[in-house]
Write a structure and sequence with these properties.
Elements (H helix, E strand, L loop, with lengths): L1 E3 L3 E4 L1 H6 L5 E4 L6 H12 L5 E6 L8 H6 L4 E3 L10 H5 L6 H10 L3 E4 L18 H7 L5 E7 L3 H4 L8 E5 L6 H9 L7 H23 L27
Length: 244
């Protein structure tokens, strides 16, 4: 067990430090503060080895916070419009940049990547949100081990919601084996993969990640109904700027 500062305790720190790069980390998301302190704690556990997180582009320009986040070489996501239209032309000029493509590139180069698959802050102390299915595209395009990382706030059940700032317990899970799903997609790469099968496959990958996160985060998760699935979205894109 390792402790980073006064806000975050990491369970499984030594085991996590021994895992070789690259890793694809999947974290549940509760509040804005953890977007800074949890990546910092995880990098500390790994002896300073970099982990690049997908973050909303506006988050990188918040005074002090943005400076800290830029130090971990994040992957900006430019899908969300600028607040009050400030910097909108800057965003539009970069909107075509795919965070999933960039994550795949970094993983292929041997660098670890982290995402928040719920896609937004979730202050519910009991339930996880469904994952953005864009995470499945990322999982299926890389061979990197997928490691679930749960974030739990001991005070959440007492006060009925996740605190905006509070002590967090971070738990490192065991890598999830997606070898079968990856083989199926690559086997059919030169053929037309059945649309319904691909829909089921990507939803199953997303659900498997969230089911692994449930016990680590102290929350519950209900498997998604594939008959109502929507188009895929990029994971971890809105978390830092949603209102609490």
């Amino acid at each position: 067990m390792g402790t980073a500062g006064r806000l975050v305790t990491v369970e499984g720190c030594d085991r996590f430090a021994a895992m070789p790069d690259p890793l694809l980390l999947m974290l549940n998301h509760n509040n804005s503060v953890e977007s800074v302190v949890v990546p910092t704690a995880l990098i500390e556990c790994r002896g300073g080895r970099l982990i690049s997180f997908m973050v909303d582009w506006m988050f990188l320009y918040i005074p002090v916070v943005g400076w800290v986040m830029r130090r971990i070489d994040p992957i900006p996501v430019y899908t969300k419009p600028a607040r009050f239209r400030v910097g909108e032309s800057f965003r539009l000029a970069r909107r075509h940049l795919s965070p999933v493509d960039e994550a795949v590139r970094r993983l292929a180069a041997g660098h670890s990547v982290g995402i928040f698959p719920e896609g937004t802050r979730n202050p519910d102390p009991d339930r996880l949100r469904p994952a953005r299915t864009g995470l499945a595209h990322l999982v299926l395009r890389t061979d990197a081990p997928v490691v679930p990382v749960g974030i739990e706030y001991p005070a959440a059940r007492r006060i009925g919601r996740v605190p905006t700032v509070g002590r967090a317990r971070v738990r490192i899970g065991e890598p999830i084996d997606f070898a079968q799903e990856r083989r199926e997609v690559r086997r059919d790469r030169t053929e037309e993969l059945d649309g319904r099968r691909f829909l089921e496959l990507r939803r199953s990958v997303a659900d498997t990640v969230m089911e692994a996160l449930a016990p680590l985060s102290g929350k519950r998760y209900r498997r998604h109904d594939t008959t109502t699935d929507a188009a895929p979205e990029a994971p971890g894109t809105e978390a830092p700027n949603e209102a609490d």
